[in-house]
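Annotated sample (chain length 188).
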Amino acid sequence: MSSSSSSENEQLLWRDSSDSESSSDTSEDELAGRLQNRIFRTARNFRARVDHFTRWNEDEFRLRFRLSKNTVIMLEERIRDNIAPNTERNHALTSMQQLLLVLRLCATASMLQTIGDFGGIHKSTASQVVKKVIHSIVTLAPEYIKMPRTQQEMQSIENKFYNIARFPWVIVNYFTRTVYQRNLGIED
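Output written by the structure step:
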């Protein structure tokens, strides 16, 4: 650091400290701490956020998020209480913004950095949002996802799947995206 900028910072520091207290009462350690905070503190950066819900028409929205706007509204209403911010300070994300970030992540299998850029937030914030929203959605699973309980139900689902995709002996667990194939000829 040059001596001229150092002396300017010290003058600024002295001027700031003289407003609240006399300069004789301030120790050198306090002045050094204040000077260090002034020099090394970075400015907060709030990125512009796009309202993706209103920006896209229904077809474009479905392409980006793989769900209709009505479905997203219903889902947001169901999980709003669990994910809504407790404050309006510091540009908090709305529950709809949080949900759309997670839906975009699921629709594109992107990285957190990409999703953060998409939503105008830092990747660490994106990580926290993903964890919170996914947890809230998973709590709804028992209402919407029903796995077969009997051998007849399992056979019926397998037949329907085979008729659609020509892929035999499949049970799909959608949450983990794991496909289990039953062994041929072996009954559970």
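Annotation: Strands lie at 170-173, 178-181.
Annotation: The longest strand covers residues 170-173.
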